[in-house]
Amino acid sequence: MTSAGWTIDAVELGLLPDIPVEHIYYQDTSGRTLNMPLIMYVLRSGGRTVIVDTGGPADEEKILRMTPFGYVVPESNRIDNVLDRIGVNPADVDLVINTHLHWDHCSNNNVFANAEIVLQEKELAYAHAPCEAHMPAYGFHADEAPIFSLAEDRIRTVDGSCELAPGLGVVPLPGHSPGSQGVRVDTVAGTFVITGDCVDTYRNFDESLPSGRFSDLDAYKASLAFLRETGWTPLPSHDPKVLEKGQFGQ
Amino acid sequence: MSLTIRAFCVGRVYGLPKPSFTYLRGYGETQDLPLIMYVIEGGDSPIVVDTGADLARAWDDHKINMEQTTEERPEEVLRAAGIDVRDVAVVVNTHLHWDHSSNNHLFPRARVLVQQSELDYARNPLQWHCKHFEISADIEPSWKRAEDRIDTVNGDTVIAPGVTLVTLPGHTPGSQGVLVEAESTRYLIAGDCIYLYDNWNGDAEADHIPVGLFTDLVAYDESLRKIEKLDCEVIPSHDFRVVERAIFE
C-alpha cells in the first residue's frame, strides 16, 4: 500500500427535495428550489475502508422528526443495500469521519459497529449545546436524545488538523458549523478534499460563495479561502454531479 | 421628569421576503416594514436613536421598494413633534446599516454613538454585506455624512441617567440596543436584533426567532439570552405595532 493509494466512491443515501435555493447560495433571492442528495463517501486503500458522513435516517417516522418536508429513500438507497452493492461489510469499517454533526451527516454512524468515529472537538462540544436556532439541525426534538448520540461512545475528537492514516487527514473548516471539518484524501489522481457543508455544491466552491446556513460568516469565508489555496480538488457534500461521476482517485 | 420614548415612522418598505425577518420561516411570503426613529425625552436633551433611510437611494442603490411621505421625512417628523434638531446632543445608531443611519447629518450638534466594533465592520464588511453599509464604488456611505461626529463606545455604556447602551452582536458585529428606564417600565430599543414582536415572542419551536440576516448566529443567540436577563420590555425595530403605539412611558 502506498500513501497515495486511496480510492473514493460517492454514494447516495437519500434526496432532500425542494430546498429553498437561499439555503445553498447565500443571498440568492430567486425563489428557486433545488434537490440535494445526501452523500456518503467510501474511501478504500489496500484492505482498509473508511467512511465519511453517514447520511440521514431512512425510516419515514424518523425522517419526519428531522424535517417536516420529509423525503423518500428508495429501497436501493438504504445504507445496508448501498454498502452491499459496493462490497463493504460495515463490520470491517474501523474508521468513520463526520464532517460535522448535523443530522443529515451522521444518522447512520451506528451501522458501523466496530468503527471509531472521528470529529472535531469543537463540533462535539457545540452539538451538545447548540443555540436554539440550530437545535433542529443537530436533531434535537422534544426530550429525545439527538441522533449523533446513537454511537457517541465510539467518538474520538481531534482538535485542528490531524493525520488519521497515510494519505488521509482532516482540516478544520469552521463557518457552516463551529467545528466543521474537511477530509483530505491523497490518491493516484491527486489530492481531494471532502468538504462537508463548507461546500454544498461545485458552484459554492467556484464562486467562494457560502451556503445560506452558517454559524459564523467570517469564519466561513476564511474556510473557503483556505480550501482554494490548498489546490485540492473539492468533493462537495450535496451536489448531484458528484454522484454522476461516482468514483474518484482511480 | 421621567424618561419617555416616542417612536416615529420615517418611511415604509414593501414586499421583502419573509425569511429575512424570521430565520428559516415564511418561504414564499413577503412582509412590509416601517422605518422607525426613536426619541428619548425627559433628560437634559433629547436623544435620537436611529435616523432612518434615504429615500433617494432606496430603489436606485438598494432595489428596495420604499415609500416616504413629506410628513415622514425625519426633519418634518421632528418639527411636527416640537423637537429642534439643534437641541439634540446625542444620536445613537443601533448599527450602521443604511436604513438606520442615513440621516445622522440632520443633527448638527450631536455626537453619534456607535460601537467601535460596528464602525470597524461598516468600514470593511464581508462582501455580501457591503450593500447594507453602502460600501461600493458608486456611492459614499450615508453613515459617513456625519462621520466626523461619530464617537465610538466599547461595550455596555451609560450615556445619560437612565439610558444605557447594551451590546447585542449577531445581526452585525457591533449591534447595540438602548435600555431606557421610563417611569413604569424598563424598555429596550432593540435595534435589528428584534425586527418584529414575533421575533421576540417566538413560536412552538423556539423561544425567540432570529432575523434572517446575521453575521454570527451563535453570538446572536447569546444576545437574545442577554435580553432575557435585562428584565425589560422589548421594542422591535421594524414592527408597525410600535408605530401605532407611538409612546412608551
Question: How would you summarize this macromolecular structure in one to three sentences?
Answer:
Chain A has 250 residues and is of the alpha/beta class. Chain A is built from eight helices and twelve strands. The longest helix of chain A has 14 residues, at 217-230.
**Count of β-strands of chain B:** 13
Distance between the termini of chain A: 14 Å
Order of helices and strands of chain B: EEEHEHEHEHHEEEEEHHEHE
Structural class of chain B: alpha/beta
Q: Helix share of residues of chain A?
A: 10-25%
Q: What gyration radius of chain B follows from the Cα positions, in whole Å? A: 17 Å
Helix count, DSSP H or I runs of 4 or more residues of chain A: 8
Task: Describe the SSE topology.
The complex is a heterodimer of chains A (250) and B (249).
Chain A: E1 7-20, H1 21-24, E2 33-45, E3 48-52, H2 60-66, H3 79-85, E4 95-97, H4 103-106, E5 116-120, H5 121-128, E6 155-158, E7 162-165, E8 168-172, E9 181-187, E10 190-194, H6 202-206, H7 217-230, E11 233-235, H8 240-245, E12 247-248
Chain B: E1 4-17, E2 30-41, E3 47-49, H1 55-62, E4 65-67, H2 74-80, E5 90-92, H3 98-101, E6 111-115, H4 116-123, H5 130-133, E7 150-153, E8 157-160, E9 163-167, E10 176-181, E11 186-189, H6 197-201, H7 217-229, E12 233-235, H8 240-245, E13 247-248
Parallel strand pairs in B: 3-5, 5-6, 6-7, 11-12
Antiparallel strand pairs in B: 1-2, 1-4, 1-13, 2-3, 8-9, 9-10, 10-11
Characterization of this structure:
Chain B: Belongs to the metallo-beta-lactamase superfamily. Chain B: GO terms for molecular function: hydrolase activity; metal ion binding. Chain B: Keywords: Hydrolase, Metal-binding, Zinc. Chain B: This is N-acyl homoserine lactonase family protein. Chain B: Pfam families: Lactamase_B. The complex is a heterodimer of chains A (250) and B (249). Chain A is globular, with a radius of gyration of 17 Å. Chain A is built from 8 helices and 12 strands. With 250 residues, chain A is of the alpha/beta class. Helices cover 22% and strands 28% of the residues of chain A. In chain A, 50% of the residues are buried. Chain B has a domain of 171 residues: Ribonuclease Z/Hydroxyacylglutathione hydrolase-like (Metallo-beta-lactamase, Chain A, 4-Layer Sandwich). Helices cover 22% and strands 27% of the residues of chain B. Chain B is built from 8 helices and 13 strands. In chain B, strands 1, 2, 3, 4, 5, 6, 7 and 13 form an 8-stranded mixed β-sheet that branches. A 5-stranded mixed β-sheet of chain B has the order 8-9-10-11-12, with no helix packed on it. In chain B, a hairpin with a 4-residue loop joins strand 10 and strand 11. The longest helix of chain B has 13 residues. The termini of chain B are close together. The chains are: A alpha/beta (250), B alpha/beta (249). Chains A and B meet through helix 7 of A and helix 7 of B.
